[in-house]
Amino acid sequence: MTEIRQVDASSAEEVLAVIHEAFAGRPPLDPPSTALDETVDSIGKALAEHGGLLATYAGEPVGALLFSDEGHLLGLHRVGVLERARHHGVARMLADAAAVAAAERGKAGLVLEARAELPRTIAFWQKNDYVEVDRNGSRLRMLRLLPLRLTLPTAEDTRLAGERLARVLRAGDLLILTGDLGAGKTTFTQGLGDGLGVRGPVTSPTFVIARVHPSLRGGPALVHVDAYRLGDAAELDDLDLDTDLDTAVTVVEWGSGLAEALASDRIALRFERSEDDVRTLTVTAVGGRWLDVDLRAELDATRLA
Ligand code: ADP
Ligand code: MG
Questions:
Q1: Given Cys at both, which of 37, 184, 239, 255 links 227, Cβ 3.0 to 4.6 Å?
Q2: CA dihedral 6, 143, 74, 80 (to 10 degrees)
Q3: Looking at ligand 1, which residue's alpha carbon is closest to its atom 20?
Q4: How many whole angstroms separate alpha carbon 46 and alpha carbon 171?
Q5: Structure letter (DSSP) for residue 198
């Protein structure tokens, strides 16, 4: 029943009506939102330049947003859903459709401004994989980078992906690897070790919780953690490593849901094996650290919505 479509200036009146009604119902902000000052002309101009999205329910407009061009990112503005249409997943559908639009336009990700006074709005965007990358008074800049996918036909491709990723890594970076046993996590980490030029051998850390591989050329060490055997993130934090994680590249196998607490900026790598044995790697960079890193080019990967 709910439909989302990309719209141009010909939908300015409907988009304006949604924005006015949605923003009129919000608590007053300081400085106030200028959404209520929008006119058919201002919305029409924005839509003509960059387009937007309109959500309808049973044909009636219930949600909208405007796009802007932020270089290699797609900007979202005036994201609004009518009070009576809340809790029907409309905002979620708008967020998903915006990601599709960003991918179609060849953008690396999406960016928006949220207000600190609206914690539920911020929580919504966080749930949709946006993280705060900047704050100016009560204005938060939130970023979501689009995931990438590579196929890995052979074990050498898995190793090479690690070696390539190593080129853009520096001390303090955190990688979180997930995937079933045998999916290629350790093979990838071996490539990472090769690329970083650390002392090997990198092996499955199953019988130790963490292993430190010092650099052979004055670069960051590689800390290889098996979080599968850890109870919780606190334990991971308490790991008595000889190396400060700020001076190393840290790789956590099986770390999803555990290691996120270590650093808000991270790269999540999910290794999967389909029934017909096609192996893929999905790479999701999170946080401002990766804003200007062209992971797609480095990994020769495809961008997903
Ligand atoms: P994990 O650490 O996720 O348990 P490993 O990296 O130990 O998995 O890999 C298990 C086995 O799968 C190894 O023998 C490795 O050479 C092989 N392998 C890894 N990646 C691939 C791939 N893309 N294609 C085929 N075999 C692979
Ligand atoms: Mg392993």
A1: 255
A2: 30
A3: 155
A4: 41
A5: B
Query: pTM here?
Result: 0.90
- Please state the atom number of ligand 1 nearest to the C-alpha of residue 180: 3
Mutation choice for ligand 1 from 181, 187, 271, 277, CB with most ligand atoms inside 8 A: 187
167-193 residue pLDDT tens? 999 999 999 999 988 899 999 999 999
* Residue 180 Cα to ligand 1 middle (Å): 10
Closest residue CA from atom 5 of ligand 1 = 184
Closest atom of ligand 1 to 183 CA is: 3
Backbone dihedral angles phi then psi of residue 32, each to the nearest 5 degrees: -65, 155
Strand order in the sheet with 139-145: 2-7, 52-57, 60-70, 73-81, 109-115, 139-145, 131-136
Residue 74 scores a pLDDT above 90: yes
**Rounded to the nearest whole angstrom, what is the distance from the C-alpha of residue 34 to the centroid of ligand 1?**
54
The rounded distance, in Å, linking the Cα atoms of 140 and 294 is 24
SS3 for 108? coil
**Nearest ligand for residue 181 CA:** 1
φ/ψ of residue 62, rounded to 5: -130, -10
Average the pLDDT over 76-87 and give the result.
93
- Distance of CA 292 to CAs 52, 109, 179, 266, Å? 25, 11, 27, 14
Please determine, for residue 206, whether its predicted confidence score (pLDDT) is greater than 80: no
- Cα of 185 from ligand 1 centre, angstroms: 7
